[in-house]
Specification:
45% of the residues lie in helices and 14% in strands. The protein is an alpha/beta fold and 282 residues long. The protein is globular, with a radius of gyration of 17 Å.
C-alpha cells in the first residue's frame, strides 16, 4: 500500500515551480506518493515534473478536473467532445509523468446537478458507457487506468454511490476502466463505507482517504475501522491518497466549499493525516 497526498492541499494550479517546492516536503512528511491535479493541460512541464518526482522516489497519480466545459454526458455535443479531448490530453500527460492512474468524476462537470427520469438516466448512462469505452481503449494504449469516482449529491446528481459506479464500469468492461472511492463522499452517501468498498472489490484501484470535514484523517467522524476492514477484506494494495484543499486559493476554495481552515496548518493536515493512515492500515 502506498500513502500519498494531493497537491491541492497546498496550491492550485500545480506548476513545475510549485512541484519543485512540494516534492521534498511531501517526502519528508513520510509520503511515498504524490497526486497531481490536471486543471489545465499546460500548467506544468510534465517531462521536468517526471524527473522531480523520480528524484524523490515518489509514486504518482493524476486527478481530472471536470469543469462546466468538460462534461461527457452534456446535451451539447461540443461540450461532450471538449470533455473527451480533455481526458485524452490528461491521459497523454499521465504517460509523460509516469502516472498509471487518472482518477476523478470522469463523467460530468462537478457542481452540475439536475433531476432525471429513469429514461433520462438510462440514456445518459448509455452515452457515458460509450464514451468511456473509447477513453478506456485510449488509456490502455498509453499505460493508464481510469478511476471513476462517485461524488456526493451536492456535487453531482449522476453517480453518487459505489453501486452506480459499478454498473457503469461493468458495462464498459475494460481493464483500463475501474473505480476510485473517496471517504468524504462515501460518508455522505453510503450506508456503510466498508460494504461499499467490498462491493467495489477488485474494481477499486484508488482510494481518497479524507475526513468528513476534509481535515486530517483521524480527526473527525469517519468510521475508519470500517474502511480498514473493507480494504483488508478485498486485499486492497493500491494508493491511499489524502485529498483536501486550502482556503488560501480562492478559486479552488469556492469550488470545494472550503470556507475556513481545517487544521492548524496545511502541513499539519498532511503530516497528521499520513501518520494516522499508516498506523491504521499497516
Amino acid at each position: 500500500m502506498r500513502f500519498g497526498v494531493n497537491s491541492w492541499v497546498w496550491t492550485s494550479p500545480l506548476t513545475t515551480a510549485e512541484l519543485e517546492n512540494l516534492a521534498p516536503k511531501i517526502k519528508d512528511m513520510g509520503f511515498d506518493w504524490i497526486e497531481c491535479p490536471i486543471e489545465g493541460l499546460d500548467d506544468m512541464d510534465y517531462g521536468r515534473a517526471s524527473m522531480i518526482i523520480e528524484d524523490y522516489e515518489l509514486g504518482v497519480s493524476c486527478c481530472a478536473a471536470m469543469g462546466p466545459d468538460r462534461d461527457l454526458i452534456h446535451a451539447d455535443p461540443a461540450i461532450r467532445q471538449n470533455g473527451m479531448d480533455y481526458i485524452k490530453g490528461a491521459i497523454d500527460r499521465c504517460e509523460v509523468l509516469g502516472a498509471t492512474n487518472l482518477v476523478g468524476p470522469i463523467y460530468s462537470a462537478v457542481g452540475r446537478t439536475w433531476a432525471m427520469t429513469d429514461e433520462e438516466r438510462a440514456r445518459d448512462t448509455d452515452l457515458l458507457v460509450g464514451n468511456l469505452k473509447e477513453l478506456a481503449a485510449y488509456a490502455a494504449d498509453h499505460g493508464v487506468v481510469l478511476g471513476i469516482e462517485p461524488l456526493n449529491r451536492f456535487e453531482t446528481s449522476f453517480i453518487n454511490l459505489a453501486s452506480q459506479a459499478i454498473e457503469v464500469v461493468d458495462r464498459v468492461d475494460h481493464p483500463a476502466c475501474k473505480i476510485m472511492l473517496d471517504t468524504f463522499h462515501m460518508n455522505i452517501e453510503e450506508k456503510s463505507l466498508g460494504a461499499a468498498i467490498r462491493a467495489a472489490g477488485p474494481r477499486l484501484i484508488h482510494l481518497h482517504a479524507c475526513e468528513n470535514d476534509r481535515g486530517a484523517p483521524g480527526t473527525g467522524n469517519i468510521d475508519w475501522d470500517d474502511v480498514a476492514q473493507g480494504l483488508k477484506d478485498i486485499n486492497y494494495d493500491g494508493p491511499v491518497v489524502i485529498e483536501s484543499f486550502t482556503a488560501k486559493v480562492k478559486s479552488i476554495a469556492r469550488a470545494a466549499a472550503i470556507w475556513r481552515p481545517l487544521a492548524p496548518s496545511q502541513d499539519a493536515l498532511a503530516a497528521d493525516g499520513v501518520k494516522f493512515l499508516k498506523e491504521l492500515l499497516t
